[in-house]
Amino acid sequence: MHISFLELALIVNGFFLLGLWAGWRLRTA
Q1: DSSP letter string over 8-29?
Q2: Cα–Cα distances in Å, from 15 out to 18, 29?
Q3: Residues 1-29: pLDDT tens digits?
């Protein structure tokens, strides 16, 4: 299975946004 640089960047960006959203939810809860 070959993962291109663009796909890897999208995956990393997705996890980063998910982490930001989770942190925001925990702070405002």
Answers
A1: HHHHHHHHHHHHHHHHHHHHH-
A2: 5, 21
A3: 688 999 999 999 999 999 999 999 999 87
